[in-house]
Write a structure and sequence with these properties.
24% helix; globular; alpha+beta; 6 strands; 4 helices
Length: 107
């Protein structure tokens, strides 16, 4: 069985920049996504990507809710999110099924 056959179709395995993740979250207003945060070390052929932990993010309006690997949740502005996570890439964006409210379902 191939890897693509076993991975759910709603999981994004390609690396995504922090700003692109913010755009994805904003479109899904209120829906929580789980992602693996990654940092790039080295250059050229010695470059490697390391996962540093799993985060859960939700965006409602200008507020970004971020829950880190320790389980601590913080409320950030979009600019604050980019200040903290702008140097990361993310993999495995997957909807958790959690919603902050039901507004997106009825708008």
């Amino acid at each position: 069985m191939s890897a693509s056959a076993t991975a759910p179709s709603h999981v994004n395995r390609e690396p995504i920049a922090a700003s692109a993740l913010l755009d994805l979250l904003a479109v899904r207003g209120g829906q929580e996504f789980r992602v693996a945060a990654c940092v790039v070390h080295g250059r050229g052929r010695r470059q490697e990507v390391r996962e540093v932990g799993e985060y859960r993010f939700t965006v409602r309006g200008d507020a970004v809710q971020a829950t880190g690997p320790s389980g601590q949740t913080r409320q950030l502005s979009r600019a604050g999110y980019l200040d903290i996570f702008g140097g990361y890439t993310f993999r495995g964006a997957e909807a958790t099924g959690e919603m902050t409210d039901l507004g997106p379902l009825f708008s």
